[in-house]
Amino acid sequence: MPLILGTNSIKDTGFKVANSCRFDGSSSYLTSGSFGTATSGTTWTFSLWVKRSEITSANYICGSYDGSRTNSLDLVYDAADTLSFYHGSNDGNGKLVKPARLFRDPSAWTHVVWSVDTTQGTAANRVKVYFNGVEDAKATATYPDEDAVAKLFADTNNKIGSQWNATSGTIFDGYMAEIVFIDGLQLAATSFGEFNEDSPAIWQPIDVSGLTFGNNGFYLDFEDSSDLGKDVSGKGNDFTATNLAAADQATDSPTNNFCTMNPLTAVSGWSNVSAGNLQVELTTDNDSIMSTMAPANGKWYWEEKRTSQGTRGYSGVADWAVPEMGGNGNRDGSTEYAALVDHAGECWGQGVTINSHTKGSAPSDNDIFTYAVDLDNGQVWCGVNEDVDISGTANVTGLATGVPYFYFIEESSGGGANTSFQINFGGSSPFTISSSNSDANGYGNFEYAVPSGYFALCTKNLGENG
Q1: How far apart are the C-alpha atoms of 291 and 405, rounded to whole Å?
Q2: Distances in Å between the alpha carbon of 24 and those of 161, 172, 173, 200?
Q3: Equal fold, 20-250 vs 261-465
Q4: Burial class of residue 50, CB neighbours in 10 A (0-12, 13-18, 19+)
Q5: What residue segments make up the domains of the chain, in order of their start?
């Protein structure tokens, strides 16, 4: 399973991406009509950074339609987790270019460049595909005819975050950032990113504001939460947002990757995870899911809203397998350490010491639980609808130190299968934040105050404090 175990996967660079947009997978997308006469109907480049949430299901990144399916284009993750580039054609016969690799990592940002010039005499040069700076081999390649019209973002119906008609099952679930369309030029990935000079295997964004965008070009940076479809290229080619609100502006970005839940670890599969992998519904006894990041040290803060916690809903931290109380221990046979908070707000543990309960009476649905997890000293503080008080004895002590810990949610045996949690690690919240608190480094957006010395779980903080 893909994990980030306390390392900074994106190094500090001169250029920082401040924001992304979170798409919900069911009803949110961006739409534009025709921007006008295209600089070129044969030559263009589309670039974006993407963090996919839903796996093994069709998710469209974008689509354009000219009214008859000829000259239409789609960029889509298909149900087999490949990325397909589909071109309609003048003769009605579709052209498909499909890279060889699979895309099954919900924890990472990926840079995708789709670069087209149908005037090229060599068919393979008419469509080039780059992932994280490297041109990819194609498993399937039926290239457009020479000089074929293959317009993107030029006709009457253009969408980002869905197929052109936004039908059910085509809408994107996840995050997008730095969306750029260049009308009239076929560019390589190096126009949009570069390899880190200190870590040459790491591909990172660069400032694209100086590029020549062409008549129908645009640049969406998502920095205006009141207008998430705003084009900042200077061309004025804005998009209209459907079911996207200010809360869908995220600080989870290619230069600061935040923790989410990992659908690949869900016992009953990915289908119960939504809202950018921040809303979880567990529908089966003993169902469970873990986070994408598992730090081994440092002090971390996050929040969860228990929208429906049932009678056996738990959450907490564990050092390997998600525990059923009295579980079987770690994979290597060593003691399993875990700290849990149950539906009654009571702390439980395995291999740990319980020092107090979170709350004397059972919390209600829609209460917000606050977590402060100190992995340097092996202890956990919890609160309900309040700032975490770390001045006294921790709720749980005795966690093993120096080993990775996941955050997890579990529906235990006999729970009635009705557990639903929303989790806020700070990069994007599925529930409304009214207070706006960040950590000492300025990261995160939380309902309650982050305790002194604790940090949001993101790669910038992992590199500094993990």
Answers
A1: 9
A2: 9, 7, 5, 34
A3: yes
A4: buried
A5: 20-250, 261-465
pTM, full prediction: 0.91
3-state secondary structure of 124: helix
**Can you tell me the distance from the alpha carbon of 26 to that of 223, in angstroms, rounded to the nearest whole number?**
23
Q: What is the pLDDT along the chain (466 residues), one digit of tens a residue?
A: 334 333 334 445 579 999 999 998 889 999 997 788 889 989 999 999 999 988 777 788 888 877 665 556 777 777 778 787 776 654 445 667 888 788 888 999 999 999 999 999 999 999 998 999 999 888 788 888 899 887 778 766 788 998 877 676 788 899 999 999 999 999 999 999 999 988 888 999 999 999 999 999 999 999 999 999 999 999 999 999 999 999 999 999 999 999 999 988 887 654 578 899 999 988 777 788 899 999 999 999 999 998 887 767 788 898 865 544 444 444 344 556 778 788 777 888 888 888 987 665 677 889 999 999 999 999 999 998 999 999 999 999 999 899 899 998 887 766 555 788 999 999 999 999 999 999 999 999 999 999 999 999 999 999 888 6
**Which residues on neighbouring strands pair with residue 299, listed in sequence order?**
374
Question: What is the third-level CATH fold of 261-465?
Answer: Jelly Rolls (2.60.120)
Backbone angles phi, psi at 367, to 5 degrees: -70, 150
Bin 333: left if φ > 0, else alpha if -120 < ψ < 50, else beta: left
Residue 461 DSSP one-character state? H
- Say yes or no: domain 20-250 is CATH 2.60.120.200: yes
